[in-house]
Specification:
Elements: H1 7-10, H2 53-63, E1 70-73, H3 75-87, E2 94-97, H4 104-111, E3 115-118, H5 129-140, E4 146-152, H6 164-173, E5 177-181, E6 203-208, E7 221-224, H7 227-236, H8 244-255, H9 257-279, E8 284-287, E9 294-299, H10 302-311, E10 317-318, E11 328-332, H11 336-347
Parallel strand pairs: 2-3, 2-4, 4-5, 5-6
Antiparallel strand pairs: 1-7, 6-7, 8-9, 9-11, 10-11
Helix pairs in contact: 2-8, 3-4, 5-6
């Protein structure tokens, strides 16, 4: 794994604070030039735990993600950005994405001046395994290598999750880092790629509190990876990247895990119900199977549908410009009242 790192990252001496080197509870903190007065009464005058230890302990208990294999990010976006910084040499090396997929992968590659190659999904939104194996073979012989492949599973915007059989085949074929983004994983009944990390240390899995756990505003992402990759990520990330309010919010949600997972089950049930309902609308040509908390559907005119819904104060996502998604819209599964309002409004649209 070490040979995959950029030279400057391999040799990086990280920023260190006194609390990185201390465990336990101190009585006097005079190491970080903080204000001694706690104006809000919640400890916000102190810097947060840079390693989010309490939160990771609870994540291990409630999410079954091993403490030693986790790093918490300021949203998964920070983790994506840092993974590219860690492994990809600007102007020389590249990442690979499989469109249509989450657009931020390419954005962060562009920000880091790293090339972004594409291997499109098949028209049925499955991964082109033969194409990937050919790519991997050519890539292993290249001096300007692709270092990271991003697989969004369940995929955004298509909703399809990949089996661990497919993920294993990709990881064994590719000599770089395979990032499996499971932001929507709680809504899928397919197994998590976390189960594969011991066998394939080049697999990195991303999780988030933004979807199922209802904390999009707190910005809490989770990287699950081989211990060495976690060690490197902790060197590269900002020293205090996740604030006290966000860590407290994560702990609060995990304390409600039973209720939240019941609500998650309700979302899945409603997704399946509206999958059948939307199929019956005249303006809908196809509704795609989904392992996520949204439905992608092909319509007769996505631009017009989005405009008509906006007039009624309803915002959905137009995916018309995405590969293989001509006239497609993506609709998040909200409350029963929200879903019914969207469905009723679409029922009134004549095209």
């Amino acid at each position: 794994m070490k040979e995959l790192l950029r030279d400057n990252i391999r040799d990086l001496v990280p920023y260190s604070c006194a609390r990185d080197e201390f465990t336990g509870e101190a009585e006097v903190y005079l190491d970080a030039n903080e204000n001694f007065f706690d104006y809000l009464g919640d400890g916000y005058n102190r810097y947060p735990d840079p390693l989010c230890r309490d939160l990771r302990v609870e994540i291990e208990k409630k999410m079954n993600l091993p403490f030693k294999n986790t790093v918490i990010g300021n949203g998964s976006d920070e983790l994506i950005d840092n993974l590219i910084r860690i492994f990809c040499e600007p102007k020389k090396e590249s990442i690979l994405i499989m469109p249509p997929t989450y657009g931020a992968y390419k954005v962060f590659a562009d920000v880091n001046d790293v090339a972004c190659s594409e291997l499109p999904l098949n028209k049925d939104f499955s991964i082109d395994i033969d194409g990937f194996n050919n790519f991997s073979k050519l890539n292993s012989d290249s001096t300007d290598r692709c270092k990271i492949v991003f697989v969004c599973s369940p995929n955004n915007p298509t909703g399809e999750a990949q089996s661990n059989e497919v993920i294993s085949e990709l990881a064994s074929s590719f000599s770089g880092i395979l990032v499996v983004d499971e932001a929507y994983g709680e809504f899928s009944d397919k197994e998590s790629a976390v189960d594969l990390i011991d066998k394939y240390p080049n697999i990195v899995v991303l999780k988030t509190f933004s979807k199922c756990w209802g904390l999009a505003g707190a910005r809490l992402g989770i990287m699950v990876a081989d211990e060495y990759i976690c060690e490197v990520m902790n060197k590269v990330k900002a020293p205090y990247n996740v604030g006290i309010p966000a860590q407290k919010a994560g702990l609060e949600q995990l304390s409600k895990s039973k209720d939240i997972l019941i609500e998650r089950d309700d979302v899945i049930k409603r997704r399946n119900e509206y999958f059948e309902k939307f199929k019956k609308l005249d303006i809908v040509e196809k509704v795609y199977d989904s392992d996520a908390n949204f439905l992608l559907m092909k319509t007769k005119n996505s631009d017009q549908i989005c405009k008509e819904l906006q007039k009624k104060g309803i915002i959905i996502r137009n995916r018309n410009k995405d590969l293989h998604c001509r006239n497609c819209v993506r609709i998040t599964i909200g409350s029963e009242e929200e879903c019914k309002r969207v469905f009723d409004s679409m029922s009134e649209i004549n095209l």
